[in-house]
Amino acid sequence: MRQCSIDQLTEEMVLGKSIYAKDGTLLLGAGYRIKAAYIRRLKQSGYPFVYIMEEGTEDVIPEDIISDQIRMQTSAELSKTLEDVKRTTGIGRVRREDIRKILEDEQRLKQVVLTPNLKVCVGNIVEEIITSQKDILDTAFMKCHGDFAMQHAIDVAILTIVLARKYHYNKEDLMTAGLGALLHDIGKIAVTESAEGSERKRSPEEQDLLREHPTFGYLMLSKIPGISLVVAHIAYQHHERQDGEGYPRGLTGDNTPPIEAISRTSKILRHAEIVGVADAYDNLTSDTPDSRAIPPEEAMKRLIEDAGSKLNRHIIAMASQVIPVYPVGAVI
Fold first, then answer.
1. Considering the domain 68-322 in this protein, what is its CATH number?
2. What does the DSSP 8-state code read for residue 248?
3. For residue 201, is pLDDT > 70?
4. What residues does each domain of the chain span?
5. Where are the beta strands (DSSP E) in the chain?
6. Distance (Å, rounded) from C-alpha 164 to C-alpha 125?
7. How do residues 283-312 score in pLDDT, each as one tens digit?
8. Which residues contact 293 (CB under 8 A, 6 or more apart)?
9. Angle CA(61)–CA(62)–CA(63) in degrees, nearest 5?
10. What b-and-e string marks burial along 175-191, b requiring 16 or more CB atoms within 10 Å of the CB?
């Protein structure tokens, strides 16, 4: 099979791999002959491409590093967690000046119940990555599952765990890094939809508010029972940069490998450095309210340009080993 852009998809092409909706239901099964109505539906749903069967490509079989089932379960559990935070705190429906007051209300946030299944999902992702023995991601699968916010969180978690494993993190640290990556943008639910979810260009005021999401995320996670401070600090620090030009605190890094044996005193948390790279890559290769997706090869070039000054150069070098610039099935 080969990868085919939605814009190049025509009727009667045969689907090579099943397509699922963001809630896990099957949209189209492998072997289905494409019809015009489904092409329109896929375009409306934001799918950039599908895999089709084509003579001579029968032996090309792209595989996601985690199963569709685990991907969909994780999306559903993350959605439940975010909705519980919104319902319990009333966040997202308040004025900007009241956000911090709510997030500093420890008793209110202690009522938030982190679904145990969310940690189970992270554990399942860790187990599948460990048992798959795959050292190279098929980045194509990280771009074909709809809902950006949910799938961005999952894709950042997957890449984070893959990179952390290359640095020989033990299973407990893989779980911590994975959960922190999955929740790294939780602070965005404190930002009004006008600032976060709009298709239009954000105003300077909305952009300033959005830049506070790491702080909002930390204030939430540091008070929710069952969440470690390391996870909270991953959310707090994932936009910090090596040269101190990141936000919100202007922390610096020293471009050392993110391993436990190296002291990180007063520096960016090692887990957060990995999440920062994974987040930057996924943002570059995704359509967002601020920019259009760019190809993997161009995204890696951008990351390499930022290596050492913005992002940890050791992690960028490792990322270049696990992220193929031409995904399986891509036409070059």
1. 1.10.3210.10
2. S
3. no
4. 2-53, 68-322
5. 2-5, 14-15, 19-20, 26-28, 49-53
6. 13
7. 998 877 677 888 888 999 999 999 999 999
8. 48, 143, 284, 285, 286, 287
9. 115
10. bbbbbbbbbbbbbbbbb
pTM over 0.85: no
Contact 285, 155 (CB under 8 A): no
* Tokens (6 digits) for 18: 């099943």
The single residue listed with the structure tokens 């084509």 is 54
Residue type at 111?
Answer: Q
Rounded to whole angstroms, what are the CA distances from 37 to 10, 42, 282, 304?
11, 9, 30, 41
- Render pLDDT for 72-118 as a digit per residue (tens, 0 to 9): 789 888 988 888 888 888 776 677 778 888 888 888 888 876 768 89
Do the beta carbons of residue 181 and residue 221 sit within 8 Å? no
Token code pair at residue 282:
């996924």
Q: Which two tokens stand for residue 327?
A: 């995904």
Report the CATH fold assignment for 2-53.
Molybdopterin biosynthesis moea protein, domain 2 (3.90.105)
Is the confidence at residue 138, as pLDDT, over 70?
no
